[in-house]
Automatic annotation (TrEMBL):
Similarity section: Belongs to the LysR transcriptional regulatory family.
Record bears the keyword rRNA processing: no
Pfam families documented for this protein: HTH_1, LysR_substrate
SUPFAM superfamilies: Periplasmic binding protein-like II (SSF53850), Winged helix' DNA-binding domain (SSF46785)
Origin organism lineage: Bacteria, Pseudomonadati, Pseudomonadota, Gammaproteobacteria, Lysobacterales
Record-annotated HTH lysR-type domain positions: 11-68
Entry keywords, A to Z: DNA-binding, Transcription, Transcription regulation
InterPro entries named among the record's database cross-references: LysR-type_TF_proteobact-type (IPR058163), LysR_HTH_N (IPR000847), LysR_subst-bd (IPR005119), WH-like_DNA-bd_sf (IPR036388), WH_DNA-bd_sf (IPR036390)
Protein name: LysR family transcriptional regulator
Length: 309
């Protein structure tokens, strides 16, 4: 493979940030103030670029400068390049194991109903970390997203270069309020099923795992076949919120609804069964594991073990 490096016809790179500031402010004086340099330094930088390129970059109009077409072209390229460099440096800093900034991407429903109420315990254990929780679900490119770890349900493929640490087995079943359960007389077949577009197969999967067939009378069977009473929501979180508001039954999962069950906002009268999925931490597979990631993994595992005791 030819790895020869071509020589770029670039001007002085030191001059480009000064030019970019002058173009942004349309003023050499304001650019100098923003960069804490002299007016002359900005003027000389622009002059050197113009000499190198052989074209003027600004029209001088009293105290204001206006970009020429060539200046506009160079300004856009310089602005985009400097922004890209800033982003790369920030990512390098954030992904350094010594950085106090620790960014967690977490599935929204799990974050709002389970992780956030418990995160204070992690803060107390690790006050040296500045934790930033970003809510997102599904596959993720950690580097592109600027995240150190992602907490995800194991329902999609994971790249081979990721470290994967499961911390909770998922179990699921219908959940509703105590009042709604009483109104049904304990017959889930009579209730309104709450569906979400982010987990469209939740009810189907739960029904498939029931170990015995249910026997209904004619009235109950007609009610089950009448899908008009079912309600559909955009997101899993909304379906659970609707169940908590007494609008029907949703398929809730552990550990997502753990706190709701403990505090009596929801009940799971028909039990919870394993779904075959788990919740897991995804991180970059480093030669030396990130101690911040190890701390999060240990805390999540211990927290889930305590819930089961």
């Amino acid at each position: 493979m030819n790895k020869s490096h071509s020589k770029h016809l670039l001007p002085s790179l030191n001059a480009l940030p000064l030019f970019e500031a002058a173009a942004f402010y349309e003023s050499f004086s304001k650019a100098a103030q923003s960069l804490h340099v002299t007016h002359g330094a900005v003027s000389r930088a622009v002059a050197s670029l113009e000499a190198h390129l052989g074209v003027p970059l600004f029209h001088r109009r009293n105290r204001r400068v206006v970009l020429t077409p060539a200046g506009e072209l160079l300004y856009k390229a310089t602005r985009d390049s400097l922004a890209g460099l800033d982003e790369a440096v920030e990512k390098i800093h954030r992904h350094s194991v010594d950085s106090p900034f620790f960014t967690i991407s977490c599935e929204p429903t799990l974050a709002m109903r389970w992780l956030m109420p418990k995160l204070g315990d992690f803060y107390r254990l690790h006050p040296e970390l500045n934790v930033d929780v970003r809510m997102a679900g599904g596959p993720i490119d950690l580097l592109a997203a600027g995240c150190d770890v992602a907490i995800r349900r194991s329902d999609f493929g994971i790249p081979n270069d990721y470290r994967v640490t499961p911390f909770a087995e998922e179990r699921a079943g219908p959940v509703c309020t105590q009042a709604y359960f009483d109104a049904l007389g304990g017959h889930w077949q009579l209730g309104a099923r709450l569906h979400s577009r982010t987990r469209p197969a939740a009810w189907k999967d739960w029904l498939a795992q029931q170990s015995q067939e249910m026997v209904f009378d004619g009235e109950q069977e007609a009610s089950i076949l009448d899908r008009q009473q079912d309600r559909h929501f955009d997101h899993f979180f909304y379906a659970l919120q609707a169940a908590q508001s007494g609008l029907g039954m949703a398929i809730g999962s552990l550990p997502v609804v753990q706190k709701d069950l403990e505090e009596g906002f929801l009940i799971a009268p028909w039990g919870m069964v394993p779904t075959g999925h788990c919740y897991q931490v995804l991180s970059l597979d480093r030669m030396t594991p990130d101690p911040r990631v190890l701390a999060l993994e240990s805390w999540l595992i211990e927290t889930c073990l305590e819930q089961e005791r």
